[in-house]
Amino acid sequence: MKQIPERFTWAESLVNPSADDRILEVGCGAGILASLLAARLDSGHLHAIDRSLPMVNKAVARNRQYIEAGKMTVSHGEFREIAHQQPFNKIVAFNVGFFQRESPVELAAIRRLLEPQGKLFVFYQAPYEIDAAYATPITANLARHSFSVETVLVEQLRPTSACCVIGML
Questions:
Q1: Does residue 152 lie in a domain region?
Q2: Which of 55, 21, 60 is nearest to 37 (CA)?
Q3: Is there a cis peptide before residue 127, judged by omega within 30 degrees of 0?
Q4: β-strands 45-50, 22-26: how paired?
Q5: What pLDDT band is residue 82 in, cutting at 50, 70 and 90?
Q6: Residues 32-54 as b or e (16 or more Cβ within 10 Å = b)
Q7: What is the pTM of this model?
Q8: Is residue 21 within 8 Å of residue 44, measured between CB atoms?
Q9: CATH number at residue 144
Q10: From CA 63, how far away is CA 61, in angstroms rounded?
């Protein structure tokens, strides 16, 4: 069995899902982080979405047990177009580029999908070492769109450091 990359176990520990959380993962890729988060849900639900069909297929294959148990949905498409009646109390994204640039449509969708007092977790791991300054464009972009930044964390991981910006409405 392959070892889970350290960035995903770190992300899981920060998101720290409760059994009843409603989580959206934007850009789920192959579903590795989604798998770690869904394993901790009981009555909660995780909706993982990615615009790459090959990645969605991998995420579905990896997480079939959680999908069949009703703990997870995996969708192909743009997250801003998903129709959801209930907002999410946690939204997670790992290496999703629009957080680093002016993205009014995407951030409006995040605002619509995140419940009041919900948390947004924006993770990045670049192919080179980063520090807290790497988060500056992310925090500025979030602030321009009425999010408050709770904290910025940097963790020394293998193969390179990663950061997490945690925001709220």
A1: yes
A2: 21
A3: no
A4: parallel
A5: confident
A6: bbbbbbbebbeebbbbbbbeeee
A7: 0.96
A8: yes
A9: 3.40.50.150
A10: 6
Q: Which two tokens stand for residue 97?
A: 């580029």
What is the per-residue pLDDT across 89-132, written as a single tens digit (0 to 9) for each? Answer: 999 999 999 999 988 999 999 999 999 999 999 999 999 999 99
In a domain, 75, yes or no: yes
In a domain? residue 103? yes
pLDDT per residue as tens digits for the range 20-46: 999 999 999 999 999 999 999 999 999
What is the C-alpha to C-alpha distance for residues 141 and 6, in angstroms, rounded to an integer?
27
Taking alpha carbons only, the member of 101, 169, 168 closest to residue 141 is 101
Please, what's the largest Cα pairwise distance for the chain? 43
| Structural domain boundaries, residue 100 | 6-156
Nearest to 90 by CA among 163, 7, 16: 16
Q: What is the pLDDT of residue 33?
A: 98
Count the domains in the chain.
1
Q: State whether residue 126 is helix, strand or coil.
A: coil
Contact yes or no for 47/24 (Cβ under 8 A): yes
